[in-house]
Prior knowledge:
The chain is built from 12 helices and 8 strands. It is an alpha/beta fold and 302 residues long. It has an 8-stranded parallel barrel with strand order 1-2-3-4-5-6-7-8, surrounded by 6 helices. The chain is globular and about 50 Å long. The termini are far apart.
Amino acid sequence: MSKLSLSGVYAPIPTPFDADGAVAHDRLAENIARWNQTPLAGLVVLGSNGEYVYLSDQEKLEVLKTARQAIPKDKLFIAGTGCESTRCTLKLTEQAAAIGADAAVVITPSYYTSRMDAAAMRRHYLELAERSPLPILIYNMPAFTGIDLSAATVVELAQHPNIVGIKDSSGNVVKLGDIIRAAPSDFNVLAGSASFLYPAMVLGAVGAVAALANIAPEQCHRIYRYALEGRHKEARQLQLKMIPPNTAVTARFGVPGLKQALDWSGYYGGPSRSPLGPLDEAQQAALRAILVEGGILASSGI
């Protein structure tokens, strides 16, 4: 049986909170309804942009339930289920399956960093894959975890029929090429950022899970489509134009910047949870200027 196809662009959606810091489920449903009208192939819920590390176990389940009700069946619903232990990851993955997720994306455990070697990663992902009711995507995010999976480890894990792909946010396109070259042909390699979507697809990636897709789904999808169609000049030009906005809502201003951009774009962004704080006036001005220059916001503002 062929592995699940994950071709397309996915938005790793933020978790909205109200002024009191509670999850705003109505706002979540409203945002998803808007994303449903875009060319996105699906949504990733409880990823890094979802502030999953700040949510209680019960809050995670309630967010997944709201998302399942709002995401139509023609778009993939990918749940972030990574926890520090294999046991807890499996439990959350099973709960996500019962709620109705289509797949699980699992970040590398990282707290005991010095012990999280290739053997630990193999143990974690292979045990999970053997027992999980959902297809598993590996999530490599070295900027947050301090763990950077090698191509050799990923290729080894890719042999398991229930490990269907990887979201790699390292930005190392040479490593992506090594994985694509050596992994099974139906293993889905997804760029973990819009900043290198085009070069990743030239090498054979099938799409991206990109924070920028929350506020620029059309532009991200166009890069994807241009690459598929061999329209390389257009893909390159749009890719270059999207690099500053992508950096602004990821490495530079992070989740608070992305949420501010959502507010300006007609979605609900709202506050992040402490200790994350809002952007100050200078940061807001810098972010707005970048988004206007990138064509994501109108110059008149919102």
